[in-house]
Amino acid sequence: MAFCLMVSVGAQAQTYPSKPIRLIVPFPAGGATDIFARTLSQKLAEKLGTSVVVDNKPGAGGTLGSDMVAKAPPDGYTLLLATSSTHSIGPNLNPKMPYDAVRDFTPIGQVGNAPSIMLVPNSSPAKTVQEWIDYARKNPGRLNYASSGNGTIVQLTAELFKSQAGVFVVHIPYKGTALAMPDLISGKVDVLFDSLPTGLPHVRDGRLRALGVTTAQRTPLAPGVPPISEVLPGYESTTWFGVFGPPGLRPELVNRINTAANQALKDAEVADKLQKLGIEAVGGTPAEFTSMLASESAKWKKIINERKISMD
Q1: Per-residue pLDDT at 117
Q2: Residue 152 to residues 71, 146, 149, 170: CA-CA distances in angstroms?
Q3: Cβ(83)–Cβ(240) under 8 Å?
Q4: Of 197, 176, 218, nearest in space to 277 by CA
Q5: What is the pLDDT of residue 312?
Q6: Is 50 exceeded by the pLDDT of residue 104?
Q7: Is residue 271 scored above 50 in pLDDT?
Q8: What is the mean pLDDT of residues 159-188?
Q9: Cα–Cα distance between 193 and 116 in angstroms, integer?
């Protein structure tokens, strides 16, 4: 019986995939995650030898689509392109989420990182990260930062900065960073940690000053901007993108999909499209992805608890 079972499992792995794969994106069409999914799915389909259909299932901040994958059959035909918000931040903000971010998914691989950029008005006296920290320390409670709302990666990135820099800066939540941009440019807002693709054009046009990026090292996405970690060692905040399967997905299928994803990410066309989106192609093993997930969750849980951050 055991031998027959082994033969059956091996045969299934050899024939996989035998039908189209559904890649669920838990966010609306047209956003960064959706564009990433469509860019990746084309090459992923070539590597796997079957079509990969992107299926947008937005709702509840990414929870709806993620939960669909958590409850899908573990056969490799339903996958999820998730982000920091669905698996590192959301579970630590909302104890009533319908899924457990660790128990209810099988990590397949990290596929990308999207850094943020620290922006200040041209009128700011600070020309560097260290000068801004010194300025904030001399004016406790008098400076402010904008975010795209409570509990967002933008707020958490700023709060992580505040925690490590030891500064007191007031939070002003907006309904999206685009709405905060005019106030930042005019000087009503003192700092904003915006996503690289939406923030960098304002720097290139001379409307804002960039002090640092939130990657651990310098990034080719913004080669002239130093990482904040050069001033605050260990500081890092990026939006990661990763592929998951349902719980119980067999290792041979995980490895097959992971290998195909890594091959797709090395494709020059994919890398170029992602760079234009402000995303670094990452790749790596399932084990590396699992380790990163644990580290990210612990980091944001600590900040959320220490700073008493909520979605309200």
Answers
A1: 98
A2: 26, 11, 6, 16
A3: yes
A4: 197
A5: 77
A6: yes
A7: yes
A8: 97
A9: 6
Cα gap 214→291, rounded to integer Å? 20
Nearest in space to 16 (alpha carbons), one of 251, 245, 256: 256
* Four-residue CA torsion sign, 130, 134, 135, 139: positive
- For residue 167 the two structure tokens come to 């500064």
17 cis-preceded (ω within 30 degrees of 0): yes
| Segment (H or E) for 21 | strand 21-25
Does residue 214 sit in helix, strand or coil?
A: coil
Detail the DSSP E strand segments found in 214-307. Answer: 238-245, 280-281
What average pLDDT does the segment 136-141 reach?
Answer: 98
**Structure tokens, 184:** 């930042």
The whole-number average pLDDT for the span 286-305 is 97
250 burial type by CB count under 10 A (0-12 exposed, 13-18 middle, 19+ buried): middle
Q: In this structure, what token pair is assigned to residue 181?
A: 């941009």
Q: What is the pLDDT of residues 76-89, one digit of tens each?
A: 999 999 999 999 99
Q: Are 176 and 137 in contact (CB under 8 A)?
A: no
pLDDT of residue 8: 47
- Non-local (6+) Cβ contacts of 289 within 8 A are 107, 108, 109, 110, 242
Residue with tokens 């990969």: 52
Determine which helix (DSSP H) or strand (DSSP E) holds 113, and give its type and residue range.
strand 106-121
